[in-house]
C-alpha cells in the first residue's frame, strides 16, 4: 500500500541503514545526516513560527487584524499558524510517523518544501506589510522576528531534504543543489494512486473538506481589503500546490468521484451554512454576487467547456433574464407595469432567454471557431446597445434606455419578504442572506443540469463535437442541432440567474452587461472564470468565479492594474496549468498520462480545443 | 473473449450474391478546376469485401467523402439499399454507412468506452430531457448502450482499455478503436480508409482477421489500402482508381495481372522503347526493392 515514491531510505530515522545492495546515491556526502539535519531544522522552524503566532507581532492595532495580543492569533497570524501546523504535520508524515502517513500518499518532501514556502511567504509578507504600513522595522515586536526567523529556518531545513524520486527512477536526479530541489518541488512527480480507506472515513474526509472549503471561502470574504487578503492569496498560492504534491487533492478527487452524492450533499450543506456563519450584511452581499456570477459561469461552461462553442456574448443572456424580470416585477419605471409572481417571472425570464438563444444561435452556429466567437461578441454588444436605445427616443420605450429600471421591489414568496430580516432557527438572516439562499437553489439546479447532461448521450455528443466536429458528424451526430441545444440551454440558465440578479441588485441597467469591464459579471470575466477554473468541470468555474469576484472586490486599491494583472495571471496559468485549476475528469485519468512513447505531449491549450 | 457481438440480423451469405448495399453511379467531384473524382460507378453487395486501390492523390479519400456526405458530389448519386442518400454526414450514418478516417480522428480526450458510445448516437434516442430526469428508461438505455459498446470492445480486443483516454492508445489500437466506434452505429456498410497504415505485419494480419469477422456478421466492407498483399488476400473484388477515374474492377487476380494497373503505379514505358525489357527491369527492381517487406507498392513518392 502506501506510496509509490521511494523515499531514499525506508527505515525513517532508525539506526544508520545499511546501504549495501543499493546503488550509491548521488546526493550530498551523507544523505542520512543531511536528511536528519533537514528535518531537525524544519521542525524547529515550524515550532518557532507556531510560537511566534502566540506572541504579538506589532505594537499597535492600526495594522489590520490587530496582531498585538499575546496568545490570541488573529488576522494574518492565523495563516501563519495554519501553515506552521501543516508544515509540522507534513514533516511528521514524511518522517514516517505511523498514523500520519495518509497525509502524504504522493510526494513527501516536495509538499513539505512548498508548505514551508507558504509559511515563509505569508509571514514575510506580513512583516513587509507591517514595515511599510507603519513605517519601519521598529514596529516589530519580538514575535514578528521569531516568525521571520522560524519560517526561514524551516525553508532551509526543507531544502536540505532530498527530492522525491519519481517511481521507478533510480538516481535520475543528479546531485541536487537547493535551487534544483526547489524547482523539483514544483515539478515533482505526479502522486501515485492512494490506498483505499474504509467507507465511513472517506465520507468523513469529504465532509471535513467541505467544511474547510467553507472556512477558506468565508475567510477570503471576511479578509479585509489589502494586506490580509493578499496574505490569503500568498498562502493559497503555495499551500494548494503543496497539498497537491502531497497527493491529497488526487485522493480527494478519487473520493468525490466515488461518493458523488455525498459530495454534492456536503458541498450544498456547506454552502447553505455560509450565511449562518455571517453576521455582516456586506459579506453576504458579496457572497450572493459570487454565487450568481459562479452560476452563470457554470452555465457558460456548458456552452464552452462541453460543446466547445466559444461564446463571447454570454452575459447578454443574463441581461435578458434580468431585464425580463425587472419588467414584470412591478417596478414603477417598468414600461409594462406588470407584476407577476416570482415563479412566473423566472419562467418568463428563462423562456425569453431561450428564445434569444435560439434566435442568435440559429444563424451564428453555422460558423466555426474564431468567426463564431466574433459573431457572438457582436450579438452581445447588440443586446447592450439595443437596450440602451429602446428608451422612447431612439426607439420604442421598452427598457428605459441608459437609466435602466431602478427600484425593483424585493421579492415576496408566500408572504416571505426577501427584503426583511428573518430569524430562522435562531439565526438572523438579512436581505442578502435571503437572496443567497434563493440563489443557492438555482445554483443547485444548474449543477444538476450540468452533471446530468454531461454524463449522457447528449453530453457525450457535445464533447465529441468539441473534440472533432467532422468525426462527430460522421458518427451520426447532428452537430448543428446539438450545438444549438447547448447554446439555448446555456442561455436559458443564464436567463434564470438573471431574474434573481435583477432583484438582488435593486436595478438593471445596460452598462452591467458589457463584453469587458473591470468588475464581474461581464462576458470576458465569465470566460476567464471558466478557463481559470477548468473547462468542462463543475467545481472549476465555481472556484474560478469566486476568485475572480473576490480579487477585484478585495484589491480595490489597485483597480487600475487589475486587468493587466489578470492578463499576466492568465498567461502564467496557460503556460503552467493549461487545464485550469481543476482538471477535467477526462484529463485526470491516471492511466499512462506520461511515459507513453508514441504519443505526443497532450495539447490541451485552453481555447485551442474550441476551434475543432 | 470468444465473442462475436450479437446482432439481430442473421449473418449474410458469405459469397457476394446479396442485394446491392451501395450503388454509386456517376460520382464526380470537382474542386475548382481540379476533378478529383470523375464519373465513378461502384457497387458493393451485401456480404462483400471490396477493395479500392490507386496511387496517392487518385481520389480515393475524396470518393469516400462523397459517399458519406462530407462532400456534396458535383454530379452523381449514391444509393444505400436502394434509397438515395442525402448529403448530410449524420444522415448517412443514420442510414447505415459508417467509416473510419485516413488520419485517425478519434475523440482524443474521451475514454475508449466513450468513443464507442458516441458511435451509438444514431441508434439511441434519449434526449436532453430524459437525461435530466434520469428515469428508468434512460438508465436502461445507458446500460444497454454500454453493454453493446463493451461487446464491440471485446470484439476488437480493447476491452481492457475501456477507461483509457483515446489519445493514450498506441497507434494500432487507435485504428482498431476507430473501427469499433464505426461498428457501434450498426452499419450495413463499413468504409475503411487505409486501416493498416503504419501497422506492423502482425497488426496487419490481426486487422485482416477483424475485417473478415466483421463481414461474418453481415456488414459489407469497402476498404482503401496501399498494402497490396492485404488487399489481394482479403477482398472479393478490387477497383482501381487512377487520377479520379475507375481504371478497372474485378477479382484480385484480374487486377493483379492487369498491365494498366502496374503502369498506373510504376509509370508507362516510353513509346518506341523496347518495352518488354524495361518492364522486366522494373519488375526485377520491384522484386528486390520490396523483398523482405510487404509488397507495398503504394506511396510512390
Ligand atoms: N477539399 C479539397 N479541396 C481541393 N482539393 C482537394 C480537396 N480534397 C482533395 N483534394 C485533391 O483531390 C485529389 C485526390 O485526393 P485524395 O485525398 O482523395 O487522394 P487519395 O487517393 O486518398 O490519396 P492517398 O492515397 O494519398 O490518401 C488530390 O489532388 C487532392 O489534392
Ligand atoms: Mg486518401
TrEMBL record, chain A:
Molecular function GO labels: branched-chain amino acid transmembrane transporter activity
Biased composition (Low complexity): 8-22
Membrane spanning stretches: 40-59, 79-100, 112-131, 143-161, 197-217, 229-248, 260-276, 282-300, 312-330, 342-362, 432-450, 484-504, 524-551, 558-576
CDD domains named among the record's database cross-references: TM_PBP1_LivM_like
Membrane topology value: Multi-pass membrane protein
Renumbered residue ranges of the record's region Disordered: 1-32
Subcellular location: Cell membrane
Lineage: superkingdom: Bacteria
Gene Ontology CC terms, in alphabetical order: plasma membrane
Sorted UniProt keywords: Cell membrane, Membrane, Transmembrane, Transmembrane helix
Signal peptide location: none
InterPro entries in the record: ABC_transp_permease, LivM-like
Protein name (record): Branched-chain amino acid ABC transporter permease
Provenance organism: Streptomyces albus
TrEMBL record, chain B:
PROSITE patterns linked to this entry: ABC_TRANSPORTER_2
Tagged with keyword Cell membrane: no
Skewed-composition ranges (Low complexity): 285-301
InterPro entries, per database record: AAA+_ATPase (IPR003593), ABC_AA/LPS_Transport (IPR051120), ABC_transporter-like_ATP-bd (IPR003439), BCA_ABC_TP_C (IPR032823), P-loop_NTPase (IPR027417)
Residues covered by region (Disordered): 271-301
UniProt GO MF annotations: ATP binding; ATP hydrolysis activity; L-isoleucine transmembrane transporter activity; L-phenylalanine transmembrane transporter activity; L-valine transmembrane transporter activity
Gene Ontology cellular component annotations, sorted alphabetically: plasma membrane
Superkingdom to which the source organism belongs: Bacteria
Keywords carried by this UniProt record: ATP-binding, Nucleotide-binding, Transport
Pfam family, one: BCA_ABC_TP_C
A biological process from GO: L-valine import across plasma membrane
Keyword Transport: yes
Name of this protein: ABC transporter ATP-binding protein
Origin species: Streptomyces albus
Amino acid at each position: 500500500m502506501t506510496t509509490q515514491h521511494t523515499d531514499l531510505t525506508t527505515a525513517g530515522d532508525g539506526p544508520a541503514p545499511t546501504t549495501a545492495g543499493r546503488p550509491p546515491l548521488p546526493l550530498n556526502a551523507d544523505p542520512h545526516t543531511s536528511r536528519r539535519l533537514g528535518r531537525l531544522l524544519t521542525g524547529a522552524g515550524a515550532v518557532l513560527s507556531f510560537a511566534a503566532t502566540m506572541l504579538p507581532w506589532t505594537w499597535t492595532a492600526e495594522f489590520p487584524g490587530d496582531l498585538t495580543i499575546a496568545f490570541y492569533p488573529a488576522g494574518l497570524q492565523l495563516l501563519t499558524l495554519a501553515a506552521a501546523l501543516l508544515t509540522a504535520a507534513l514533516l511528521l508524515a514524511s518522517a514516517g510517523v505511523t498514523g500520519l502517513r495518509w497525509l502524504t500518499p504522493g510526494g513527501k518532501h516536495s509538499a513539505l518544501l512548498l508548505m514551508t514556502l507558504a509559511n515563509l511567504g505569508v509571514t514575510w509578507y506580513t512583516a513587509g506589510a507591517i514595515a511599510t504600513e507603519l513605517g519601519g522595522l521598529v514596529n516589530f515586536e519580538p514575535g514578528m522576528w521569531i516568525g521571520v526567523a522560524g519560517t526561514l529556518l524551516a525553508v532551509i531545513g526543507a531544502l536540505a531534504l532530498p527530492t522525491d524520486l519519481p517511481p521507478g527512477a533510480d538516481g535520475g536526479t543528479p546531485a541536487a543543489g537547493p535551487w534544483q530541489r526547489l524547482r523539483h518541488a514544483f515539478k515533482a512527480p505526479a502522486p501515485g494512486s492512494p490506498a483505499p480507506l474504509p467507507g465511513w472515513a472517506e465520507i468523513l474526509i469529504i465532509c471535513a473538506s467541505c467544511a474547510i472549503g467553507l472556512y477558506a471561502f468565508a475567510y477570503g470574504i471576511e479578509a479585509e481589503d489589502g494586506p490580509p487578503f493578499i496574505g490569503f492569496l500568498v498562502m493559497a498560492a503555495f499551500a494548494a500546490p503543496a497539498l497537491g504534491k502531497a497527493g491529497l487533492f488526487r485522493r480527494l478527487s478519487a473520493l468525490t468521484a466515488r461518493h458523488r452524492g455525498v459530495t454534492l450533499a456536503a458541498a450544498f450543506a456547506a454552502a447553505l451554512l455560509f450565511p449562518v456563519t455571517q453576521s455582516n450584511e456586506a459579506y453576504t452581499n458579496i457572497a450572493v454576487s459570487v454565487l450568481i456570477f459562479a452560476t452563470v459561469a457554470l452555465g457558460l461552461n456548458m456552452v464552452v467547456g462541453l460543446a466547445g462553442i466559444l461564446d463571447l456574448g454570454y452575459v447578454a443572456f443574463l441581461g435578458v433574464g434580468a431585464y425580463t424580470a425587472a419588467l414584470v416585477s412591478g417596478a414603477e419605471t417598468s414600461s409594462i407595469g406588470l407584476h407577476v409572481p416570482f415563479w412566473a417571472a423566472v419562467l418568463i425570464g428563462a423562456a425569453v432567454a431561450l428564445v434569444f438563444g435560439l434566435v442568435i444561435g440559429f444563424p451564428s452556429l453555422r460558423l466555426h471557431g474564431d468567426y463564431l466567437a466574433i459573431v457572438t461578441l457582436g450579438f452581445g454588444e447588440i443586446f447592450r446597445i439595443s437596450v440602451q436605445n429602446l428608451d422612447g427616443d431612439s426607439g420604442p420605450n421598452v427598457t428605459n434606455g441608459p437609466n435602466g429600471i431602478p427600484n425593483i421591489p424585493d421579492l415576496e414568496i408566500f408572504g416571505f419578504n426577501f427584503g426583511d430580516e428573518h430569524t430562522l432557527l435562531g439565526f438572523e438572516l438579512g436581505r442578502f442572506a435571503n437572496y443567497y439562499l434563493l440563489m443557492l437553489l438555482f445554483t443547485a439546479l444548474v449543477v444538476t443540469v450540468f452533471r446530468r447532461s454531461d454524463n449522457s448521450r447528449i453530453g457525450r455528443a457535445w464533447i465529441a463535437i468539441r473534440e472533432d466536429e467532422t468525426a462527430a458528424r460522421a458518427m451520426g451526430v447532428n452537430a448543428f442541432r446539438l450545438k444549438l441545444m447547448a447554446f439555448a440551454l446555456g442561455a436559458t440558465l443564464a436567463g434564470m440567474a438573471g431574474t434573481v440578479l435583477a432583484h438582488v441588485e435593486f436595478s438593471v441597467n445596460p452598462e452591467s452587461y458589457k463584453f469587458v469591464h473591470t468588475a464581474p459579471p461581464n462576458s470576458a470575466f465569465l470566460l476567464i472564470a471558466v478557463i481559470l477554473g477548468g473547462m468542462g468541470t463543475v467545481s472549476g468555474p465555481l472556484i474560478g468565479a469566486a476568485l475572480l469576484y473576490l480579487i477585484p472586490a478585495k484589491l480595490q486599491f489597485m483597480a487600475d492594474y487589475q486587468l493587466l494583472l489578470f492578463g499576466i495571471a492568465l498567461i502564467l496559468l496557460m503556460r503552467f496549468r493549461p487545464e485550469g485549476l481543476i482538471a477535467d475528469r477526462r484529463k485526470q485519468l491516471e492511466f499512462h498520462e506520461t511515459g507513453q512513447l508514441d504519443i505526443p505531449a497532450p495539447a490541451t491549450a485552453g481555447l485551442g480545443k474550441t476551434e475543432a | 473473449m470468444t465473442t462475436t457481438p450479437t446482432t439481430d440480423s442473421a449473418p449474410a451469405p458469405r459469397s457476394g450474391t446479396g442485394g446491392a448495399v451501395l450503388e454509386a453511379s456517376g460520382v464526380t467531384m470537382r474542386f475548382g478546376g481540379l476533378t478529383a473524382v470523375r464519373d465513378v460507378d461502384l457497387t458493393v453487395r451485401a456480404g462483400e469485401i471490396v477493395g479500392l486501390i490507386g496511387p496517392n492523390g487518385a481520389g480515393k479519400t475524396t470518393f469516400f467523402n462523397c459517399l458519406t456526405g462530407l462532400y456534396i458530389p458535383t454530379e452523381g448519386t449514391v444509393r444505400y439499399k436502394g434509397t438515395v442518400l442525402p448529403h448530410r454526414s449524420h444522415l448517412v450514418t443514420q442510414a447505415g454507412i459508417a467509416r473510419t478516417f485516413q488520419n485517425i480522428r478519434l475523440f482524443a480526450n474521451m475514454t475508449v468506452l466513450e468513443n464507442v458510445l458516441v458511435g451509438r448516437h444514431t441508434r439511441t434516442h434519449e434526449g436532453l430531457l430524459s437525461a435530466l430526469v434520469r428515469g428508468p428508461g434512460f438508465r436502461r438505455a445507458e446500460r444497454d448502450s454500454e453493454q453493446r459498446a463493451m461487446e464491440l470492445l471485446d470484439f476488437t480486443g480493447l476491452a481492457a482499455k475501456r477507461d483509457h483516454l483515446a489519445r493514450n492508445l498506441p497507434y494500432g489500437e487507435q485504428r482498431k478503436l476507430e473501427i469499433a466506434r464505426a461498428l457501434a452505429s450498426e452499419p450495413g456498410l463499413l468504409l475503411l480508409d487505409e486501416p493498416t497504415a503504419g501497422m506492423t505485419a502482425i497488426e496487419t494480419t490481426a486487422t485482416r482477421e477483424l475485417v473478415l469477422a466483421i463481414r461474418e456478421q453481415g456488414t459489407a466492407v469497402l476498404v482503401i489500402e496501399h498494402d497490396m498483399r492485404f488487399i489481394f488476400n482479403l477482398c472479393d473484388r478490387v477497383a482501381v482508381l487512377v487520377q479520379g477515374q475507375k481504371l478497372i474492377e474485378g477479382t484480385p487476380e484480374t487486377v493483379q495481372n492487369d498491365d494498366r494497373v502496374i503502369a498506373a503505379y510504376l509509370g508507362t514505358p516510353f513509346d518506341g522503347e523496347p518495352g518488354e525489357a524495361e518492364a522486366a527491369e522494373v519488375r526485377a527492381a520491384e522484386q528486390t526493392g520490396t523483398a523482405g517487406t510487404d509488397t507495398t507498392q503504394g506511396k510512390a513518392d
